[in-house]
Amino acid sequence: xxxxxxxxxxxxxxxxxxxxxxxxxxxxxxxxxxxxxxxxxxxxxxxxxxxxxxxxxxxxxxxxxxxxxxxxxxxxxxxxxxxxxxxxxxxxxxxxxxxxxxxxxxxxxxxxxxxxxxxxxxxxxxxxxxxxxxxxxxxxxxxxxxxxxxxxxxxxxxxxxxxxxxxxxxxxxxxxxxx
Length: 179
Fold this sequence. Notes:
Elements: H1 2-6, E1 12-18, H2 21-29, E2 34-42, H3 51-56, E3 62-69, H4 76-86, E4 94-95, E5 98-99, E6 105-109, H5 113-126, E7 136-139, E8 143-145, H6 153-156, H7 166-175
Parallel strand pairs: 6-7
Antiparallel strand pairs: 1-3, 1-6, 2-3, 2-8, 4-5
């Protein structure tokens, strides 16, 4: 905990939407250099939405993971590269069996200096596909923390639903040196 306090000034944040936030949170938390993750709702048109509202009331929010990371340990480019491995970047408003605008993919940034990194990363990703990459990329307009029962959900419920296959979790652990 002491080293975390010392480096708080250098901790950066990025918000990533990748379908159901349960799996996205677990996956992103496995990346070496990620200090913390939290699930919530981003870039919608209502204040303090509930899960029920996000799913059924057309709030415009995306299920999103707030990622705090130490740039001395992991770059934004690396985080994005691993994020792309866990999503279908060609799907619109869908990941796995989850369908709806709340399951769209998105990169929401709070630091304008990250915009160029994100754009370059997406250009490189696009080279791998003939169809357009459909990841929403805009500044973070709003973010609301999800209910407590959603936080670290798959850690507490290891057999819970997840659209990200176990192989992707294992690959992320291995690439981060956590195997």
